Amino acid sequence: MNYRKWMLGVLVLLLCLPIGMTGVRAAALQITIELDGETLSPDVPPYITSSNVTMVPAGVVSKGLGAAVEWDQNTRTATISKGENVLKLTSGLKTALVNDNAVGLDTSVQIVQGRVMVPLRFVSEQLGLQVVWNQAAKHIALYSNAEIGGPSTPSVPAVPTPNVPTPAVPKPTVPPTPTVPSIPGAKTSKEMKGAWISTVFNLDWPSTSSAGNETKQKKEFDTLLDKLQSAGFNAVFVQVRPSGDSLYPSVLVPWSKVLTGTQGKNPGYDPLEYMVSATHNRGMQFHAWFNPFRATTDASTSGLASNHVAKAHPEWVVSAENKLYINPGIPEARQHIIDTVMEVVKGYDIDGVHLDDYFYPSGVSFADDEAFKAYNPKAISSKGDWRRDNINDFISRLGQAIHGVKSNVSFGVSPFGVWRNKKADSTGSDTTAGVSAYDDMYADTRTWIRSGWIDYIAPQIYWSLSFSAARYDKLVDWWVNEVKGTGVKLYIGQATYKVGTDKSAEWQSGEQIINQLKYNEKYDEVAGSIMFRANDIVTRDPFGLASLLTFYFKS
């Protein structure tokens, strides 16, 4: 009997060892925490688990949200409730119940020194507590009521009222709103804080599981907007024409398959109308992003709707790199794309029209000899110059059409980040990129800028500050000089998708993006940035990138 008791005691001791070790790690990290500017000193300090999850005492969450926290020792389950939302986290389980729906967890509830510890970010996202993590200072800032990020709502002018004498009432002293500490090197905030939302392959929105479900798709988009706004973004660039199709009712192109799983199938509502309204309701900008000349993402036509351009006008289509492209060399085909863009400009209250870099495909054979002969009224001898002229004509005509209907709608393009290498052109950038926008995609961005055909340019500078072939800083320098004195704004396209996915050392931290933002601050010509892409920022959130961006944008 005594032997069994002794063994039981040893077993209990062994079970407690990981908890004790966790506590030691917490002390070593010395994480500090504040709530709405007030420093908190919990009995058990926050700590980071081996799976990189920040754990805090449940009492912190309770205080910050006014949520009720209950611990059931028998089931080892923490129940956190606020209003209609109820979270149940059971020690040792990899799932939690959120309003009775199972949701995956990296780390569940733990007991340390008699205190219930909960995963901070998971609980906060479910119940609305804003979190800002400063990696360098090992500091957590929590905000219970103040919304972090996003533009302020425009004020409404007050209606004048007659002067009526009233007794003076002393005003109570209101404590100052807590501020996020400034970051060394940061200067005036840039106007554009944009994020690309990819719909092709259901990358960012809508999810494949929401196919045909209007309610779920709307909720997903609302959640994505809320997360982006909380992180500090004030604009979204949403892909409304991923592959010669549309996320809106069109008389020219079919419904996109990303909405229902079947191209041409009506989703039962107007997604674009909803997205524009939801974005504007949050005081954010909505830019409609078009892939101009990409017709499909593979070479097959079997799943295409009958009114898709590849079936309706096969004579316009060229197969290259296992994709189908609309031939930019055919004037009627170019006009067709302009007409589809103008459907959106005329029918929706968008803030801008945005094109990406899908002009001519680079590094592959493109069968346009017949078009070169048939549609060459200027008798241009070089096919390369002819291709650039086709794209120039398209950009010029599209800009004129947009501004002819709505002068307040901005028009911009996001080309490949290298116009030309210095080796190919002495006025090019100090880079040795394998391809260039001018020579391989036939995008003569210099002409667009100098001719004033576009309102902004957003080059995709998707390389680090130390990548020798195409350094971020050298390319920003070059593009700044391109737009200087032209009136064309410069937004920088940044590769948040590389953080944690690119295996090189410089991308194993969100600091690469922050350092790039700091570099942008050198120039007044850089009017902001657009980051690719939304889910990589606020859903995958590598190394706490969303919090780093929030901290930076708010400083």
Automatic annotation (TrEMBL):
> Which UniProt keywords are given for this protein, alphabetically ordered?
Signal
Report which superkingdom the organism of origin falls in: Bacteria
State if Hydrolase is listed as a keyword: no
Keyword Signal assigned to the entry: answer is: yes
Q: Where is the composition biased (Pro residues)?
A: 168-181
Can you give the residue ranges of the Copper amine oxidase-like N-terminal domain? 35-140
Q: What is this protein called?
A: Family 10 glycosylhydrolase
Species whose genome carries this gene? Paenibacillus helianthi
